[in-house]
Specification:
The protein is α/β, with parallel strands linked by helices and 221 residues long. Helix content is 27%, strand content 27%. The protein has a single domain (21-220), classed as 3-Layer(aba) Sandwich (Rossmann fold).
Length: 221
C-alpha cells in the first residue's frame, strides 16, 4: 500500500508519483491516503475464502495490515517496503498485537535477494506505481520468489477510475502484457480500492466505496 501517489503536496513529486526512498518516507509523515488501518476488503475476502495460503509475501506492505491479516489466520508472512518509516510502524503493530511477522526494508525490484520462495504474493498498490522499465524488472524478481504452484494477487487502480488524481491507471491489457511470458493470468475482476480521502466523505476515515480497481490472480506457467 505504500506506492499510491496522493499524499500531501510535500510528500510527492509534481506528477503525484512516489519514486525514491525519501518520497516514500515523507508520505508517512501523516497518515497517507492508502493507509486505511485495516486490510483492503478485496484481500480480506480472499483470506476469508481460504485463497491466501502457505508462506505469504506482501510486496509494498506499508504499515503491515495484510501481513498481520495473514499471520492472524495462522500463516507465516513477510512484508517488504521501501519506506523505513512504514516498516517501523508495521513492526510496532505486530508487537502490540502479539503477532510474529517479519518486516524488511527492501526495494521490490530486488526481491530475488530474499533467496526464498512463497506460496502467495500480495501486491496492494505497488504495480500501478511502477514505471514501464521497472515493471519488467519487478516481474522477473517476482518470478524468483513465487513458488511453482504459487499465486500472485494484484490489486491496482483501474482505468475505469475517472480523473487524474492519485496513481497511474492500469488497463487489463497492460496486466496481461506484463505477465505474458512465463505466467498465466487466471482472472482479472473489477474491485474497489478503499482510501482515506476526506474529499469523498468528511465524516468518515475512508471511503467505503473506494476507487475503481482490478483484482488479478496470476500464477507461474
Amino acid at each position: 500500500m505504500t506506492t499510491i501517489g496522493g499524499g500531501s503536496s510535500d510528500s510527492v513529486r509534481n506528477d503525484g508519483r512516489l519514486r525514491v526512498p525519501e518520497d516514500f518516507n515523507a508520505a508517512y509523515a501523516e497518515a497517507p491516503a492508502w493507509d486505511i488501518g485495516r486490510p483492503q476488503p478485496a484481500f480480506l475476502s480472499l483470506a476469508e475464502s481460504g485463497a491466501i495460503r502457505g508462506q505469504v509475501l506482501d510486496v509494498g506492505c506499508g504499515t503491515g495490515e495484510h501481513v498481520l491479516m495473514a499471520v492472524g489466520i495462522g500463516l507465516g508472512a513477510t512484508g517488504i517496503d521501501l519506506a523505513a518509516a512504514a516498516i517501523a510502524v508495521a513492526e510496532g503493530k505486530a508487537r502490540d498485537r502479539g503477532l510474529a511477522a517479519r518486516f524488511l526494508v527492501l526495494n521490490a525490484l530486488e526481491l530475488a535477494s530474499l533467496k526464498q520462495q512463497f506460496d502467495t504474493v500480495l501486491d496492494c498498490g505497488l504495480f500501478h506505481a511502477l514505471q514501464d522499465d521497472d515493471r519488467r524488472s519487478f516481474v522477473e524478481n517476482l518470478r524468483a520468489v513465487t513458488r511453482p504452484g504459487g499465486q500472485y494477487f494484484l490489486l491496482c487502480f483501474s482505468d475505469r477510475e475517472p480523473g487524474r488524481w492519485g496513481p497511474r491507471r492500469v488497463t487489463q491489457d497492460e496486466i496481461r502484457a506484463s505477465f505474458g511470458n512465463g505466467w498465466k493470468v487466471e482472472s482479472i475482476k473489477a474491485a474497489k480500492f478503499c482510501l482515506r480521502f476526506e474529499r469523498w466523505d468528511p465524516a468518515s476515515a475512508y471511503n467505503p466505496n473506494g476507487a475503481s480497481a482490478w483484482l488479478a490472480q496470476i500464477t507461474p506457467a
